[in-house]
Task: structure prediction
Amino acid sequence: MSDFFREKRPYVTIALAAVNLLVFLALEVLGSTEDVNFMFAHGALFGESVRADGEYYRLFTSMFLHYGAAHLMNNLLMLYVIGDRLEEVIGHVKLLLIYLLGGVFANVFTVYIYEMLGINAVSAGASGAIFALMGAMLGCMARARSGLMGIGWQRMLLLVGLSVYSGFASPETNNAAHLSGLVFGFLMGVLLYSRKKAVKNQW
Result:
């Protein structure tokens, strides 16, 4: 079936992309999204602030902040590529649940790992949540024992592999969020996948 004639539209994926974009534009009007102090003042993740000051809201708000246009566009592209397919496989509510819980879990794990390693970094970005979506797609495919929505095993594993490699190739990337989000998403995909509602459309 052509994508144009698909009955289900990725409303949640589009809404999440729109929120990320609007937040970015608003912050650019107010200041610079490439300024660490500015981003910290507007909700970016910093472990000490969460642990010592109880600013737990940062575990959530940092998911919608991005350091510059390139960071934003890379994440929005990946969000749409994965979210568009996954939303039809598991539905709107489950996708939103995985995105939000996966992003928060990735940030909690980041705070824990950074404390262990003595890293003091101000983190921001939706990549933890997006890796959760990638993990969820893998989890759904594991349950279905096949590719889903035009994405086969080889293509999906290649996408995940390249994304993980890209993260480790950049010293500024929060790989703790990527990997923890991926694992969390996989488990959620396995738990939430429903064979009856999934659509298999291999090409």
User: Anything to note?
Assistant: The domain at 3-192 is CATH 1.20.1540.10 (Rhomboid-like fold).
